[in-house]
Every structure is written in structure tokens, then in C-alpha cells.
Write a structure and sequence with these properties.
Blueprint: E1 2-6, H1 10-27, E2 34-37, H2 44-52, E3 62-66, H3 72-80, H4 82-86, E4 91-96, H5 105-113, E5 115-118, H6 124-136, E6 140-142, H7 144-154, H8 158-188, H9 201-205, E7 215-217, H10 219-225, H11 229-242, H12 246-258, H13 263-275
Parallel strand pairs: 1-4, 1-5, 2-3, 3-4, 6-7
Helix pairs in contact: 7-10, 11-12, 11-13
């Protein structure tokens, strides 16, 4: 069987890859038949020998081929024996994060013969839903305006987004806990009531998950803790200007404007950076 994971969203594709590996390790305890070939050690003969070699534990092998597409020699030889590999009992997994040419014989074969999953960058409502679910893992909410600002600042880079979410939750949780502790002190000084009588404080006192409960990220939290993407990108623009690379600089400025960045803000940032050189 052949599996093909590909696309520029490396965060989600890496998650899927790790999920497959972890499932394999649970089923096949020895772990000796998990093999990994990447672009640096991707030799077709080594791969072929691995497929042919019989496992001493009578286990299926999971053979991961990472970034195989740039290796033209490997592709050519793989396609010659493609049917044999397709029908093999072992699992062969192609993991590709780079740009794949429109007309590629290996890509055409995998699309037709493998179990494929493409990972495109999340946009629009799909990105919003993903972010909300990530916050929900920490029992944390986010205001709609704060969500808009977070996407404006970070974009669709899920590696950075994941880090920013953890940072925001870590910042808000202790503050929420301190407010809750003050409330609990007041509650403990009052006679206890049952939940049926409206005594919700009892739920809080004995809920082990209450650390993150009722936390909601605000726009102020985003502005305080998250660095806007434009401030990261602006350094590339400034470098191009400093190197007098007009083509690169103009191209980057056009990208800023196409994204809706304010021309006055761009000018002020460029001016600020050059003053501090």
C-alpha cells in the first residue's frame, strides 16, 4: 500500500505523519520495521533492498520517503517497479512539502494509485474554525474581534499560530486563576449551598479542569503579545532597499499593498528602521 501526504501546510501534514507513525508503533511494538529515508539519504537501491528484506518479526514495515520528488534518479527507478511497490504488503509513505511540478510522472502515478491527502494553507472560515478548536483544547475562548486581529497579525502560518495560541493561553490562565482564587476566598466565607440552590461555586471548587475555564482572549491580549506579521516581513523589504535591489524591493512593497497594509504605516516602519541602522 502507498500513502501520499503533500502540500505546503507542513504543520497539518506533519501532524498527520506523526499520527500514522504513532498508530504504527502501537500496533507493531518492536519499532524495528519503521524506516525513514529523506532527501539526504534517499538511495533507490537501499529502499529496494528494504522492501525485499523479510521482517524477522513478521510485521508490516512502514517505509517513509520524505522529499523524494527532487531526486530524479530515484523517481525514474521507482516508476519502473511501481506496480510491485504498489502491491507490496508493506506501507510506503511519500511525504512531500516542496513545490511539485505540474507535469510529473511520479505525482500522476501517486494520485491514481495511492491514498492521497493534500494539505493546502487554511483560509477564511476554515482557518477561523481551526484556531477556535485549538483554543478549545485549552478550554479557552476568543472574541471575534480578537480572532480577526490574530489572523491579521499571523496569517495562515499554523506553526506560528500554534505557538501564539499557547503563549496567549499561558498568559491569560494565571490571571484568570488569580481572579478565581479571590472569588473562592469570598465563597468560602459564605455558607455553602447546593448546586440545585444555585451554588455554582461548588462546581468550581471541585472541578480539576477549572484552570482554563471561562478564559476568553481579547483584542488587547493580541496587541500586547503577538507581533504583527508585517513587522517581520518589513525586514525583508528594508534589506532589499539597503542592497539597492529595486526589483525585489518594489515586489515586496506591492505585496504589502495587495494585503491591505497602510502605505503610511509602511513608510513610517521603513523610516524607523533606517533611523536605527
Amino acid at each position: 500500500m502507498i500513502i501520499f501526504l503533500y502540500g505546503p501546510d507542513t504543520y497539518r501534514s506533519r501532524q498527520k505523519l506523526n499520527e500514522i507513525i504513532e498508530h504504527y508503533k502501537k500496533v507493531h511494538k518492536s519499532g524495528l520495521n519503521l524506516k525513514y529515508f529523506d532527501d539526504e539519504n534517499l538511495n533507490f537501491q537501499d529502499f529496494k533492498d528494504e522492501v525485499r528484506q523479510t521482517s524477522m518479526f513478521a510485521e508490516k514495515k512502514l517505509i517513509i520517503l520524505a522529499e523524494a520528488f527532487p531526486n530524479s534518479e530515484f523517481k525514474e527507478k521507482f516508476l519502473k517497479g511501481a506496480k510491485i511497490f504498489r502491491d507490496a504488503e508493506d506501507v510506503i509513505l511519500f511525504y512531500e512539502t516542496g513545490q511539485i511540478p505540474e507535469k510529473d510522472s511520479l505525482f500522476d502515478f501517486l494520485i491514481k494509485q495511492a491514498k492521497c491527502q493534500e494539505f493546502k494553507p487554511l483560509e477564511g472560515q476554515r482557518l477561523r474554525n481551526w484556531i477556535k478548536k485549538e483554543f478549545e483544547k485549552y478550554q479557552t475562548g476568543i472574541e471575534n474581534k480578537a480572532l480577526d486581529k490574530l489572523i491579521e497579525f499571523v496569517g495562515s502560518n499554523l506553526w506560528q499560530m500554534s505557538n501564539e495560541i499557547r503563549k496567549l493561553v499561558s498568559y491569560r490562565a494565571p490571571r484568570a486563576a488569580r481572579r478565581r482564587d479571590k472569588s473562592l476566598l469570598n465563597l468560602r466565607s459564605a455558607p455553602p449551598r447546593s448546586v440545585a440552590e444555585g451554588g455554582k461555586e461548588n462546581e468550581v471548587l471541585f472541578d480539576h479542569k477549572s484552570k482554563y475555564k471561562n478564559i476568553e482572549i481579547s483584542s488587547g491580549d493580541i496587541e500586547l503579545l503577538v507581533k504583527p506579521k508585517i513587522e517581520t516581513d518589513i525586514f525583508k523589504t528594508i534589506d532589499a532597499l539597503a542592497l539597492k535591489d529595486k526589483k525585489q524591493a518594489l515586489g515586496l512593497i506591492h505585496k504589502h499593498l495587495e494585503k491591505g497594509d497602510s502605505p503610511l504605516y509602511l513608510l513610517s516602519m521603513i523610516n524607523f528602521q533606517f533611523r536605527n541602522l
